[in-house]
Amino acid sequence: MSESVKPVEGLLIIDVQAGHVEGxxxxxxxxxxxxxxxxxxxAAREADALVVHVQNDGDAGQVDEPGTAGWELHFRPLAGxxxxxxxxxxxxxxxxxxxxxxxxxxxxxxxxxxMSEMCVSATARxxxxxxxxxxxxxxxxxxxxxxxxxxxxxxxxxxxxxxVAEWAxxxxxxxxxxxxxxxxx
Length: 185
Hints:
The protein contains 5 helices and 7 strands.
């Protein structure tokens, strides 16, 4: 892990939706995660950086099914902030995210949100492959644990899954310990 030295130009908040941070389907330690994302959001807003709220359109019956209470964004976007809806893990896939970043000449991003090994990872990987500088605050992304499975192994705690997701992104991503260390400019 390193400390972020250079400011980033934009913030992607991935799938921080009510059903994932509130109630019975919330990820472990959801309140702490929401605080860290709020710190990033406050810093980005103060710096007048690009803020993109990514909202997953889950399948029927899922906690993030469009139109349900769980689908609603946890943080209310302000005027000028962008909401991008997606149907795939990768926020670049079949959305306007790439065009938006190009229009705004954004080349560096802080990425936070849910789920570490799925949507956060897929979006970060595509951003890296497209040449963006990506900062991933360790305390501002999360997920659920992996349940035990007969013949496959014991349960894996959510914190371990998140850390492995960071590690799997390789050495191009800048993992920083704390959201508070991320600067925008």
